[in-house]
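Human: Here is a favour to ask of a fellow structure person. Comparing notes only helps if you start from a blank page. I am asking you to supply a protein in sequence and structure-token form. Write it directly below this note and I will take it from there.

Assistant:
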Amino acid sequence: MSPPPNPVEACFLDLARRWSAAYRKLGPMETPKRETDLLALAALILANEHPHRLSPACHETIGQCRELGGNRFYYWVDRLPWQLAGDILRGERHESVGINIITQHLDEPKSALRGWALEVAWFVRADLDPESAVPKLLANVENTLAFVTASWGLAGALCGSKEALELEARLFQPEDFIDQYAKRCARFSEFDLVTCQARFWNLESLCRRIITDSMAHGGSPQTELPL
């Protein structure tokens, strides 16, 4: 008889099972509920922070979730957290398939998809290449209406400090909305980076709460999470 999974692995498998069960109920034109997305992000946190505590059983589960998430019109969207988790467990953090996909979509024209790419990117920000990602994020500051603050906040995390970000912002050459870009940069300079990253910190708090609840129930929560 094989030993029971450790608490981290039990939690990861629980999150994956719950995500898969919710995802299979979706109709052809339905998008996942927010609670379902949070399950995938919580699983990504565990893979990112505790890869050595996840066994081959988790690799198999990740593959199943990745395949399931790739069966929709925007194939990359729902499979992305699982792609990244698999890349991490294989020791392929930098220049991986998942990192390339997420970098490509940081300036995605469709705002909902761009927002999701930014959120997923937050959890693997240490693996992103700032030289590739920051210009895309600053382009969002220049020419988009949604997730402008989030783009600035993520760029700040990649640059490492407010001062480094403001230097990159001055070096960036806006193409179309020069005045708008200048005004937005000036506005953001009035706030610290943590304020501009509030969306991400709140999101991470929700995901860690999901992890804590799952672990408190031994990987098998008995009640619906109050999200």
Remarks:
- The chain has one domain: 7-216.
- The two ends are 37 Å apart (CA to CA).
- Residues 221-227 have pLDDT under 50 and may be disordered.
